[in-house]
Amino acid sequence: TDITIPATYQGKKVYGIKDGTSATSGAFYNNTNIRTITIKEGVENIGSYAFRDCSSLTSITVPSSVTSIGDYVFASCSSLTDITIPESVTSIGNSAFFYCSSLTNIKIPDGITSISYYAFKCCSSLTDIIIPDSVTSIGEYAFEKCSGLTSIEIPSSVTSIGKGTFFACSSLASIIIPDGVTNIGDLVFSDCSSLTDIIIPSSVTSIGNDAFYNCRSLTCISVEENNIKYKGEDGILFNKDKTTILCYPAGKIATEYVIPNSVTSIGECAFVYCRSLTNITIPSSVTSIGKKAFAYCSSLTSIIIPNGVTSIEDNAFYSCSNLTSITIPSSVTSIGNDAFYNCRSLFSITIPKSVISIGNYSFRGCSSLTSIIIPSSVKSIGKSAFYQCSKLTSVTFEDSEGWFIAWLEYDSSGIDVVLTDPAQNATYIKDVYSGKYWKKK
Fold this sequence. Notes:
This protein is 2% helix and 25% strand. The chain is mostly beta strands. The strands form twelve sheets. The protein has a seven-stranded mixed sheet with strand order 30-32-33-35-39-37-38, with no helix packed on it. Strands 12-14-16-18-20 form a five-stranded parallel sheet, with no helix packed on it. Strand 22 (230-233) and strand 23 form a beta hairpin. The protein is elongated, with a radius of gyration of 27 Å. It starts with a strand and ends with a strand.
């Protein structure tokens, strides 16, 4: 079916296509018979959700009279291969081309100042896009999962790249961040598995969490010398004074790394997915290890945490599947959620007498662990902390009295348990009461 939107109807001017108020209320929502659409000169706006889920739509003619394209206008038009947006358009709504999986190229007109969030998410056939100099910001997840995109040129007018902008752009091999960008949001290049190197310009003052998460081909992060916030050394990203290591690129092939003595903090996700590293030396200067710091370091076999570190954060060693031993110092007072989740080669661990709390799922899936001693300092053990520890046969509580099982995290009472038998304790903690909260009165 071919559709024409007229400029006049029954003698009256047609100003636009009506806004939809929800996903299912667009003017032509889910009309799978429409193949082509011609909008006549004189129509000024295309309302939100207008053609959402028109899955057979292959082409559309947008006239130069149109000034705005609303939210979700072409979302899930999975057969749309090409569209020319006229220079008259000054705004493109959120998720406007979401999941237009057949769209191969698009030119954003001059006059657009920002690319809205999710604008081109899941446009998996998109190989090329031109961003004009008028654009100053790129919204959250704007190009997420554009898996065919191999390169993109960001104009010097852009000052901010939003959260997850290029998330899972798996073919993106190179990108130039222009001088003028001050903010790189969380997850911006996460899962960009083909990205090999990147240069951080001098203008950048903020890089969000997980910005380079699982960039498995990334070998070098360079930082321009006069950047006042960050420093690159041997392709590794630090803060300016090298007191925090922020990102060791996951594509590096070295098997060992010695963290510099200047470092006091290991940042969140600093070594995530560094699959080649078998040994990491942490200096005594380090007092803080961030969340997911060593997650998925699948070749890491042993590690010594220096005295001075007070907590093992959530997911710190998540799925370090070849980790056989770890030394936890007496300075540590808490073991976070999922801290050693799925460390299936970990056969022994000593919890120091300083530890007060053991988080949810902290040792879940540690299938080689056979025994463990819970020191008297421990006051709480999170749910499923030892779930799927299939070889765990002995759990000794140094202080076996005063423990109860709570159904909810904030319960102050529950089922009192006697914990004098290590074998029975193991059955309780990994099976019978695994999904409950263990607390000491």
